[in-house]
Automatic annotation (TrEMBL):
Domain HTH CENPB-type: 1-74
InterPro entries: CenT-Element_Derived, DDE_SF_endonuclease_dom, HTH_CenpB_DNA-bd_dom
GO MF, any single term: DNA binding
Protein name per UniProt: HTH CENPB-type domain-containing protein
Transmembrane segments: none
Lineage, opening ranks: Eukaryota, Metazoa, Ecdysozoa, Arthropoda, Hexapoda
Family matches, as Pfam families: DDE_1, HTH_Tnp_Tc5
PANTHER family for this protein: POGO TRANSPOSABLE ELEMENT WITH KRAB DOMAIN, TRANSPOSON
Organism expressing this protein natively: Rhamnusium bicolor
Length: 307
């Protein structure tokens, strides 16, 4: 009864599959994310609808859930800091859920091949690093060092490694509306550069990395599909376009256990600290050999020597 739904059955099936898949992989969605996705779909196809600015309201969401009973609203549990601490049993439960998921998908054998298991994470790299301990006269208080660039400037670097120890091409994200031509010309072979207003990874930038960098690299290196890519749970990059691309290309994005990336995430545990130690050494040598001010045009060629 009543008017036909704004979205077709096929379009609502897309939404339903996306919502359910995200929840199973550790990325439960907020209702506003669903509304944002519908708004983007309607703006893209230009379909006439009764919504304000093409964005549905709570009534539409209520009817959508009624038409799709496999999805329900669930309250998250509020827990204290002491209960939020990571425990061995919680981590073991996460591994158990991962195993169950892989068994249900009939791809558990993938975990025996390190070349098909990946972890990607981004880190902020300061362009003006501290030198650390230096030599100076005893009891000398006024010890300064002239900064080679903006003291708090940080550039985002997305790193991606397999369990077999192979590095996939990284992506460097700059805070630009448009990447300057002279900067684009300095990109090392096989690397990627992205842009965002904040300089941090966004949904569009992460999709660009997976679709245009990571997937072609997997194909060119003859990695067997499907592959699994572990990422942080706080990321908002897992949008509808990325979900459908990954389903088609057999790339599984799986969420690491929350608040435990300092234990479980290989990039945090094994990669970023030595990378930044090496980066400080590279910057120290750069400052000794160059008198002119450091700028982003030198960043790519410099960071390449650290990774």
């Amino acid at each position: 009864m009543g008017p036909a739904p704004v979205l077709s059955t096929a379009e609502e099936d897309r939404l339903q599959n996306w919502i359910l898949s995200k929840a199973k992989l550790g990325f439960p969605m907020h209702p506003n994310e669903v509304k944002d996705a519908v708004q983007k779909i309607l703006k893209t196809i230009g379909r006439i609808n009764p919504f304000v600015d093409d964005r549905p309201g709570n009534k539409w969401l209520h009817l959508f859930l009624k038409r799709n009973p496999n999805i329900s609203k669930r309250n998250t549990e509020i827990i204290s800091k002491s209960r939020a601490s990571v425990t061995e049993s919680a981590i073991r439960e996460w591994f158990s859920e991962l195993r169950t998921f892989l068994e249900n998908e009939n791809i558990l054998d993938m975990m025996n091949d390190g070349s098909r298991i990946f972890n990607a994470d981004e880190t902020g790299v300061r362009t003006c690093t501290k030198s650390g301990l230096v030599l100076a006269p005893k009891n000398y208080k006024n010890l300064y060092e002239i900064a080679s660039g903006p003291e708090k400037e940080s550039i985002t670097v997305l790193c991606n490694y397999s369990a077999s120890g192979i590095a996939a091409p990284p992506m460097v994200v700059f805070p630009y509306k448009r990447v300057p031509k002279e900067l684009a010309l300095t990109v090392p072979k096989g690397w990627a550069i992205g842009r965002s207003d904040s300089g941090w990874m966004t949904a569009a930038t992460f999709f660009e990395y997976v679709a245009n960098v990571f997937y072609p690299w997997l194909v060119s290196t003859n990695v067997m599909f499907p592959v699994i890519l572990f990422i942080d749970g706080h990321k908002s990059q897992y949008n509808l376009e990325l979900y459908e691309f990954c389903v088609e290309k057999r790339i599984i994005l799986y969420c690491l256990y929350p608040n435990a990336t300092h234990i479980l995430q290989p990039c945090d545990v094994s990669i970023f600290r030595p990378l930044k130690v090496n980066w400080r050494e590279v910057c120290r040598i750069y400052r000794q050999k160059n008198k002119h001010k450091y700028n982003t045009s030198q960043f790519l060629s410099t960071i390449q020597r650290s990774i």
